[in-house]
Amino acid sequence: MSDQYTEDKFEYLKGDKVLWAVIILISVFSIFPVYSASSNLEYIVNNGTTTGHVMKHMFFVVIGLGLMRAVGFVKYEHIGKLSTILLGISVLLLIVTMFSGQTIDGASASRWLKIPGTPFSFQPSSFAYLTLIIYLCRYLTKKINRERLPIENILYIFGPILLVFILVAKDNGSTALMILMVSVAVLIVGQLNWKYVAGFISTSVVAIVLFIMVALNTSLIGGNRVHTWMSRVEVFFDNKKENQIESEADKAKNYQIMQAKAAIVHGGITGMGPGKSALKQMLPQSASDFIFAIIVEEYGLFGAFFLITLYLIMIIRIVMIASKMPAFFGSLLVLSMGIMIFIQLSVNIAVAINLIPVTGQPLPLISYGGTSMLVTYFQLGIILNVSSRIQVYDEEGMGKKQNYEEINDIA
Fold this sequence. Notes:
The protein is mainly α. Helices cover 70% and strands 1% of the residues. The chain has a two-stranded antiparallel ribbon with strand order 1-2.
């Protein structure tokens, strides 16, 4: 009786229970560093109140958890079938953003679209990134045993990737590069012939070089941020040089990294305690891009280790789910969503500890901001959706080799 009650009690949390627990833990934890760091927006940026920001963050956490659960009600195969339409809509939104995008909190890039009739804005690039990866998983799964013609790969694989890259790169270079990286990873995991993967990588390198050269030497790509990217890369490598005497201009460029490193050092082993960060008012984007530095300052290396452990458990469970899924589309989709989360996580932490140049990527499920958070919850919703289907396939005897093609054709 008690076992049946426990099973019914947790039936709402469909999918991998360990993954559910990790997601909820990180989501609840995120409230505390966001509440602390968002005081920067109130007192320095003069934007809203700390209470207002944390309430907005909690609102998106609740909406995100609801969205994640709602995704479980839709068969992931149907999401795959809708990906072409969703990708087309995302591309249209990116084009609209190029001409009428807005800046948020003083950002120099017009990446945002305002939802008519509401106070909310969103980043179309995040949705385009997500729908592109789902589309690639779907396309690579269809007729997997059939050799595709080169023109098919160019039109239906490379074309959409490069189109989204070009539309995103103008205002968001780091996200555009991540799109290329994850796309290549999906093509490899999706078993696309290596000669096509190598050809695409070569083409992408040429496209990036041409884009940068045109942006730096002509006015054809108006409002681009290539100069900002180059400046960040130069600052990063100059900062790595030993015995270098910095000018005042160099110190100004290094300001974000210097404050982030100072916050990490200030935190030490045990941290200053929740809400007691001394550098949150001095570190730009302390509630979003550099929130990991604030977490280390307030919770120390112990707190950072605990958070990273939760992320590692999340990634391990994602890999386990993918390995158990008999349907190729489901397995590829889970791995692809996991790669997206892992790269974003790695990039954010690497920036905070000065391993790579500043990119502006948020920390998954932690950083303040609605668009990226909702996209991450949607990704996790897909993963939980697939994990809930593994037992169904096993019960229906669809794990046998002769049924693989049937499952993949359904996708």
